[in-house]
Protein: Ribulose-phosphate 3-epimerase
Organism: Aeoliella straminimaris
Amino acid sequence: MTAQTHRDQIRARLAAAAPAINPSILGCDYAQLGQEIADMEQAGAKVLHLDVMDGHFVPNFTFGMTIVEAARRATELPLDVHLMMEQPGRYIRQFREAGADVITVHEEVCRDQSELADLVAQIRELDALAGIAINPPTPLERIDKVAGNCDLILCMSVMPGFGGQEFDHVALEKLAALRDRPDVTAFLEVDGGVNVETIADCTAAGANMLVVGSAISGSDNYRQRIVELERLIK
Ligand SMILES: O=C(CO)[C@H](O)[C@H](O)COP(=O)(O)O
Ligand SMILES: [Fe+2]
């Protein structure tokens, strides 16, 4: 029997948790990062979403591998790293070495689908799950050749760059179309404006990884909010 790879283990953990609330640390108090992550974990998070923004692909900066590495020391939860950056291929290895378990790159930074497929292969080579993300205006055709051969597809429901924006329903049509494609076995993730009003529509459309930022980090009781969100999807 062949030994389980890290990818196999992470895939199994995510599958067992699905549909999973995936809290984003975007709005956390970074002076208390370890405590914030411990609070998310105690509140019931089974995976954590880390938003890397480069100030080029999106009009905002957040953090790089230093914070991913700090998060890795703070928890054993799978780390889902969303790279909102140009030229992600230059940094994928460093994010993996920092402790990323899922690494997601944007279609919009790629020349074509063959470059996107190369990034997926690079991420898998490093024994991480490979995700591909598309912005609200990006049609599904732009990933149709890669969708059947990646580990996660992220349908953005806001233009990336900031938390607290309003949910764009265009993501629901894409999720439903991906769910209905027999060759797509990837986790289906949605990110942006997911809250108590929108989360049930997301799972009904096929999402099984639900990134939630401000609806959790802006609440004064993480546990209560996660329980409330879980009740709406299970
Ligand atoms: O990728 C992101 C922004 O680009 C974040 O993951 C997302 O915005 C989470 O925040 P919220 O739930 O408040 O929209
Ligand atoms: Fe994100």
